Amino acid sequence: MSTTTKRALPDGLPAPDQPPLTKPYWDGTRAGKLVIQRCKGCGAHQWGPEWVCHRCHSFDLGWEEVAPTGRIWSWQRPHHPVHQALTGFGPYTIVLVELPHAGNVRMVGNLICEPTAPVEIGAEVEAVFEPHDEADPPYTLVQWRLKD
Amino acid sequence: MSERTLRGKVAIAGIGETTYYKHGQSPDAEFKLALQAILAACDDAGIDPKEVDGFASYGDDRSDAPRLAAALGIKELRFSNMHWGGGGGGVAASVANAAAAVHSGMANCVIAFRSLAQGQFARYGRSRLGAAAMGDDAFLAPYGLISPAQRFAMKITRFMSDHGIRHEALRAIAMASYHHAQSNPRAVMYGRPLTEEKYDASRWIIEPFHRLFDCCQENDGAGAVLVVPADRAKDLPHKPTYLLGTAQGGHHRSAAPVHNAPDYASAHFPTVAKNMWAMAKLGPQDVDVVQAYENFTGGVLLSLVEHGFVDPKKANEFLVLENLLAPSGKMPMNTSGGNLAECYMHGLEMVNEAVRQLRGTANNQVAGAEVVAVLGGPMVTPVSSLVLGTEATL
């Protein structure tokens, strides 16, 4: 597991709400693990969290740890600050990361890179856990960096 | 069993709009703007506003039907309808829902409308989030993915990359809207032309495909149309414009959470467009004028592709300015200036423009226009589209 104390974005952005539906994911990230929903009925991976399996309609959804690696499915680099915490900051890079070993579910995070670095669709990436210990409740974000 | 269709069953008898303002510039409250547009549509149709018996809107419009009915002294409210979904995804659906009410006999005379005063209320391009991000936003906002442009940008990046489409294709879409606005005095961008140089020099909102001019304005104003049974429209002042086909919704799991739609690089029209063309008994080749909702130019590209107007393999060659201009381009598009340059009235202004083209009264008239398509706000779910036509198309 890889963690970082250097944050991808300035402090002051909204913190994630952690209701019962999504709590296992946030508990996982606190422990440096990437866990996502997996149906106990049919085995389908599912992301984001939902109460029912979209494939077999089972409500018996479990949570499974998956390898914290993936590949860039798409990306964007915002310049315009849409939140006051981002004023004077940026550009920064957002990636949509596909997890081929987990039913091709996709996750959104920041790519840790220079703001002018080229970004390539299909590039292999690995998760970097970014703790926000001072928050109440504390939470950990999942960022991404290119695999060596 | 008789065919279940709205084709030729209802008509838009009247159109109305307020003065269009830059965001925050309206001297009037949002609800007053709604009233002005609705009264203008009734006046245009030659129908007493007290005969209106229904209201349909979308995008969480704040001017609610019961208040409108009370304010206008409506004799009897028979239909009130709010279409789910944000932005302009529901623009065609609001007309369709009004049409369904009229054709089914639930109501006789229904207004579809949109009112927006972003000075009175909040803007879309700035965060309205609190300290905690809820629902889908919990997985997006902490990463700085907050605004509508950011919600859609990665669809565009992937589609453009997959098909090798250049930013110049999007520039042509933006320039067509600005070009048409220069001869439309209603347009907010009237007298403010856009050149290639100005577009290319404009600042990045989001790399790699969203410069400033790829993004819609935010505006204040209101627009409305009046929907009546087809046979009634024949006795009213204007040449009737008939609804030929319409559909709304989204394809398989297009609203899947946290950017997990299986067909992600999409405007979400594949099934909607198919259903609309099937009802209309027409295809893209039959359309004289296209009104394609621009939230962002990349969304217009996806929307045109999914309705069959543009082959992605030929997008670089086809999406050039001259092809998109009235009166004689191959595909005149956004002929009043659209969301980018007439007014961001969540596409209602495009329905009004479609009616003007079919009446032959548009500022940038396409001669002999018989069929006009209105492609509603792309990339949200539900999306919606419609096709209107003259009596000759029935």
UniProtKB/TrEMBL annotation, chain B:
Cite the InterPro entries for this sequence: Thiolase, Thiolase-like, Thiolase_C_2
Classification via Pfam families = Thiolase_C_1
Q: Which domain of life is it from?
A: Bacteria
Citing just one GO molecular function, the answer is: acetyl-CoA C-acyltransferase activity
Give every Thiolase C-terminal domain span: 256-387
Q: What is this protein called?
A: Acetyl-CoA acetyltransferase
Instruction: State the organism of origin.
Output: Neoroseomonas oryzicola
